[in-house]
Design brief:
- This protein is of the alpha/beta class.
- The protein has a single domain, classed as Response regulator (Rossmann fold, 3-Layer(aba) Sandwich).
- The protein has a five-stranded parallel sheet, with helices on both faces.
- About 30% of the residues are buried.
């Protein structure tokens, strides 16, 4: 009998309170946390090291922007599902993120239900 591995996640957001909130929501859904980072550079390093199944990624980060992080993640050998989050849900931000391979976009502020809906859609079996 084979045991299905828990899906893993990473959070990349410079807001520590929001990062903790997202971590709690996803852990409560049974996902396994492998990393949390406050910068794009650290988030990329962690994702390359831990290969999460899902990344929740802020567009606005203090160093490498979320769009650049998204591009790098999607070029990897095993690209994760990526949910972009931003308080700036302008058409160019959303369109650019989705065109570059984001699997969802959630506008801040959001509640747990909105985030979980985006996660469930992104993690659907293909």
């Amino acid at each position: 009998m084979t045991t299905k591995r828990k899906a893993s996640f990473a959070v990349i957001d410079d807001d520590s309170v929001l990062r903790s909130l997202i971590q709690g929501i996803l852990r409560n859904e049974g996902l396994e946390q492998v990393s949390a980072a406050s910068t794009g550079e650290q988030g990329l390093k962690d994702c390359h090291e831990h290969s999460p199944d899902l990344v929740v990624l802020d567009i606005n980060l203090p160093d490498t922007g979320g769009i650049e992080v998204l591009k790098s993640l999607k070029r990897g050998p095993r690209p994760p599902r990526v949910i972009m989050i931003s308080s700036e849900a302008t058409a160019p931000n959303v369109t650019s993120a989705l065109a570059l391979g984001a699997d969802g976009f959630v506008v801040k502020p959001f509640n747990a239900a909105k985030l979980l809906t985006a996660v469930k859609i992104a993690m659907r079996e293909t």
